[in-house]
Task: inverse folding
């Protein structure tokens, strides 16, 4: 028996920009950003854009076209419009469509696939870019609060498969992320609010002062105050990026602290046929795991109620009927999601709970009857 | 405008083992290797096996089953048998089948997908493992000379799509590679020989002494002498691994020296509907680019003829009618492959040529009429 040990390191780096305007009437920072990132003039770009965004924003595509008329970068055909939200991620169909455009327009590894949209659209565009030619440079321009402060600045992409959320995907750091504040004006109140629970989550597990900030400014957030949401997005993105860089970016181990409140959230989305949006499901998941932490004597009642009140003041439900859905044998389907969560993660079940606001603690089991009691509690006080 | 720069490093490492026997009557090194690699006893394994291998080896599956009966590792269902050769890589169908097994058997990120087979089977098994749950640990057990000395020890996987070779795939280092010498006994003479051109290639661009070794032992290679093929595989794998670790493992730049002779090879395979095997196409591609290098005054006639003679003594064709296939407009289809090669790679066309045996040189253009003259030359002296 002989062995050759193979060993190498890969350096990953990408900037996350925060700008006020991009293709709107204000300044277009794109040229400046492209220059700073060393994008050369003859480079080719394929745009993949969220259909939901296009419905509300009729200046975006003309804005993109104008930019390319004014510069020597090449626009590969008309931007590809794909369904917004979870519809983008169902099976391989939309991925196939993007791959087709990549093939038709001769997009290569030194070209750029630019995703503009919410988390789901960025997920599928990122996945297609990651597997075409084994990886085309990918630029993410998140357009929702949720994607600007969370998924859009991360290193994952995915689509659903076999009806399971994020069943296939890759870890593929983007080339560049641009968070454009002006895109938030296109959001419905519901979509706007849906980004806030991820910020609460990261505050709960990592930064009590950030949780306090959100608690202090609920009224401003409910009024869609621009300065407040900018601060929230910037700090949440910063904590998210720091966490990824400092821990296990490609999740080789068991731990996934950023998934606090998510084991149930993923399942609630699926059980509601994605009528419950990700942010809404996370809001409920946060409450559920906080009640559970209180029931096992980990979290004080005072802090539990601060969390639940914050979620309620921000106009989120803390309970949904999907929490109690059962299969033919009377098994609670949401709780079955624990097993799927473990499988997706692999290895030992590892669930993040909190022992106080700002301090996460991992546990390796969840008591089913206590989860049920937690549901009952939320139902009662909803 | 604000910026948060994201930055992190990932360490990749995996061992490549060389053993005499694995599931054959001799010693089974698997337990020892699993121990050395820290694979714990409760771990779950899904086997994906080359259908061509199974036709010739009826002790493999019983051998696998016996191993799992004797140890506490868990075998997830019956091994999945998939078509061998390029058929495994046509579109998404086989990938889907493997994903289905991963889903049905609850294979997670801490489980192992073990591919046993030739390069194509390892490519599709590696691709499915890389995208399921964003990456399941993947063990490669290459069974051909070609996969043991070349693709199987590398970091790529892929499938064909839109009729284009390797159009989708990822860079995903395996968890572990095991080259089992005994598997070579299952190979037809044709499949056996098909691994040698990659060794010649790596000698031509990196190691004149290795080229000399192959030249010296052609008779032994034609007789399938065990000691000679072991040496050839070990040295070729070693050069391949060194190259990957020392350069640009995930091919961010333009350079792809290991693809010497490959721009035409990929296209010849496709134009022959994969009747010409990869190794046979590479043998022709090596000769073609050597003639071209001679025609542009880069390579001496003596060395050119050494190369061509070596390829011929090893019983490979140096010319195929596919080299002269044209489309309706009379355009040479193989030469069109240069553009596809550039697109797959991205950026500037970069072709490796050799200025002498053991020394590669990159060029950024290929003169079409000189490529045609090279074809004519090979046709004449075939």
Result:
């Amino acid at each position: 028996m002989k062995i050759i040990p193979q060993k190498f390191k890969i350096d990953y780096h990408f900037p996350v920009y925060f700008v006020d305007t991009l293709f709107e009437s204000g300044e277009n920072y794109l040229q400046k950003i492209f220059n700073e990132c060393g994008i050369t003039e003859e480079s080719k770009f394929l745009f993949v854009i969220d259909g939901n965004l296009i419905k509300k924003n009729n200046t975006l595509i003309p804005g993109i076209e104008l930019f390319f008329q004014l510069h020597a970068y090449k626009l590969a055909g008309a931007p590809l419009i794909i369904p917004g939200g979870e519809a983008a991620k169902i099976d391989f169909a939309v991925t196939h469509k993007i791959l087709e455009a990549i093939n038709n327009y001769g997009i290569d590894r030194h070209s750029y696939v630019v995703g503009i949209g919410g988390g789901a659209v960025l997920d599928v565009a990122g996945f297609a870019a990651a597997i075409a030619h084994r990886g085309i440079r990918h630029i993410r321009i998140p357009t929702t609060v949720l994607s600007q402060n969370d998924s859009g600045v991360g290193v994952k992409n995915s689509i659903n498969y076999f009806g399971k959320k994020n069943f296939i995907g890759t870890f593929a750091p983007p080339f560049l992320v641009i968070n454009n504040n002006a895109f938030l004006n296109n959001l419905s109140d519901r979509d706007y609010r849906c980004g806030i629970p991820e910020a609460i989550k990261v505050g709960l597990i990592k930064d009590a002062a950030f949780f306090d900030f959100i608690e202090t400014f609920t009224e401003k957030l409910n009024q869609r105050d621009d300065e407040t949401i900018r601060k929230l997005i910037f700090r949440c993105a910063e904590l998210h990026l720091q966490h990824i860089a400092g821990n296990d970016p490609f999740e080789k181990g068991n731990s996934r602290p950023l998934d606090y409140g998510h084991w149930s959230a993923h399942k609630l989305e699926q059980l509601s046929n994605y009528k419950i949006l990700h942010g809404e499901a996370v809001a409920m998941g946060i409450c559920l795991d906080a009640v559970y932490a209180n029931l096992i004597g980990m979290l004080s009642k005072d802090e539990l109620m601060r969390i639940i009140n914050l979620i309620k003041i921000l106009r989120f439900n803390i309970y949904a009927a999907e929490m109690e859905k059962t299969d033919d044998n009377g098994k609670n389907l949401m709780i079955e999601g624990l097993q799927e969560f473990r499988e997706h993660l692999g290895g030992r079940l590892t669930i993040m709970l909190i022992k106080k606001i700002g301090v996460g603690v991992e546990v390796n089991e969840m008591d089913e009857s206590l989860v049920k009691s937690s549901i009952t509690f939320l139902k009662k006080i909803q």
Notes: The longest strand of chain A covers residues 2-19. Chain A touches chain B through 68 residues (CB under 8 Å). The mean pLDDT of chain A is 95. The first helix of chain A runs from residue 30 to 36.
